[in-house]
Amino acid sequence: MVQRASYINQLRQFIDKPFVKILTGIRRSGKSSVLLLLKDELLLRGVSEAQVIHINFESFEYIELKTSQTLYEFVKKQIKNNKQHYLLLDEIQEVEGWEKAVNSFLVDFGADVYLTGSNSHLLSSELATYLAGRYVEIPIYTLSFAEYLQFRKHYFPEVPQNNRAAFQSYLSLGGFPVIHTSNYSEETAYKVVFDIYSSVILRDTVQRYKIRDVELLERVVKYAFDNIGNTFSGKNVADYFKSQQRKVDVNTVYNYLHALEGAFILYRTSRYDVKGKEILKTQEKFYVGDLSVIYALMGFGNRMISGMLENVVFLELKRRGYQVFVGKLDDKEIDFIAEKQGEKIYVQVAYKLESQQTADREFVPLLAVKDQYPKYVVTMDTFWKESVEGIKHIHIADFLMMEKY
Q1: Cα separations (Å) of 215 from 193, 206, 212?
Q2: Contact 269, 284 (CB under 8 A)
Q3: What is the C-alpha separation between 190 and 245, in angstroms, rounded?
Q4: CA dihedral 252, 253, 254, 256 (to 10 degrees)
Q5: What's the gap between Cα 5 and its chain centre?
Q6: Domains of the chain, with CATH numbers?
Q7: Best CA proximity match to 344, nearest among 368, 363, 327, 367
Q8: d(CA 258, CA 393)
Q9: Cβ neighbours of 161 (radius 10 Å)
Q10: 377 with 394: CB under 8 angstroms?
Q11: Residue 232: phi, psi to the nearest 5?
Q12: How confident is the model at residue 161 (pLDDT cuts 50, 70, 90)?
């Protein structure tokens, strides 16, 4: 199994700490594998197999553990002594009233609890009620570019790697780990991803939010995918449908976008007014949880290449723990303002700087920001100026592989 070191490093900080550790992310992003890697870590620390109770609620083996009561009784029987026990509970949302059982594990057994789940709203709402202040969430994303290279090296060690050439493959195949364990063609890979997407739509969106108009939900998805990298609002979506002779309530659109966020199909990012230093409430941007979902649903093409590259950079910043905003500076836009622990970076993303006009469009907004935080223009250009007045121009493959921004 390939190590996903960034997640294990985060979990190490919380082993034996009095918090419920919850791993969230879109289905098939690797949450179950991270739990298994954590189990290996515990065993290396001298924890015995009997002290680790690992349950995957999507396995038929545990089909009867569907209520908080049956889960509690099962775990109670597994705890044979007063030693510390570690509960690794995979896809916990499959258990009705699971939050009551988890609370009891803490109270009755003092267990160290780790959960995974595929819906952020489900977990955050119920956890907040029962475990206020006693849980920490660790988002699990599909493979970063660096992790993709690790997977390729592990599964195809005979194939030489060139980072910039490899990025083209990463861009076209996306980051679902299962895709990179075999040498899939694009067509086959997209079929696999479409099945993942269908499962997410059905189980984590339609069933969870009791959505009746699945066809309308699919239309909202396609509108969002067509506008990756563009600002829009629920009203824009409703107006578009109206132009197609289909009347849709704005609140319904917002509810559907909310559901898609909950299932990690979409991520929302707000605009930030650089001068006014405030978050704006209108015209947000949405990015997809993995680019391959767009290809699986709508086909692969370069029609939205700049938006796709933005999506890759957005997810990388999120993986690294940044809070990410779209910057507004008068009538100009900065693709990303990312903040973490009092530090900040500015990032512009473009396909290629093919003319001075294009270069100006990317550099000028950053030149207008007068602070000393790092600023980057990220593109797929092979040759261009390395920097302009301290603003670094860098190939996207090199940007994704930087240890620190």
Answers
A1: 20, 11, 9
A2: yes
A3: 32
A4: 90
A5: 16
A6: 5-139 (3.40.50.300), 145-271+279-300 (1.10.10), 323-401 (no CATH)
A7: 327
A8: 35
A9: 11
A10: yes
A11: -160, 170
A12: confident
Burial (CB count within 10 angstroms: exposed 0-12, middle 13-18, buried 19+), residue 159: exposed
Strand partners, 54: 88
At 362, list the tokens. Answer: 């990317």
300: phi then psi, degrees, rounded to nearest 5: -90, 140
- Return d(Cα 52, Cα 84) in angstroms, integer: 9
Amino acid at 51: Q
Helix, strand, coil percentages (3-state) for the chain, rounded to 5, are: 45, 20, 35
Residue 369 near residue 382 (C-beta atoms within 8 A): no
C-beta separation of 326 from 267 below 8 A: no
| pLDDT tens digit sequence for 350-402 | 999 988 898 999 999 999 998 999 999 999 998 777 788 899 999 999 999 99
Q: How many residues comprise the chain?
A: 405
**163-166 — which CB contacts under 8 Å span 24+ positions?**
163/397, 163/398, 163/401, 164/382, 164/395, 164/397, 164/398, 166/397
Strand order in the sheet with 20-24: 52-56, 86-90, 112-117, 20-24, 135-139
The values of phi and psi at residue 399, to 5°, are: -65, -45
**pLDDT confidence tier of residue 150, bands split at 50, 70 and 90:** very high
Burial category of 147 from C-beta neighbours within 10 Å (exposed 0-12, middle 13-18, buried 19 and up) = buried
Determine contact, residues 32/64, Cβ cutoff 8 Å: no
Written as six digits, the tokens of 356 are 């001075």
Here the tokens at position 202 are 């059905």
Q: H or E element: which one contains 191?
A: helix 186-199
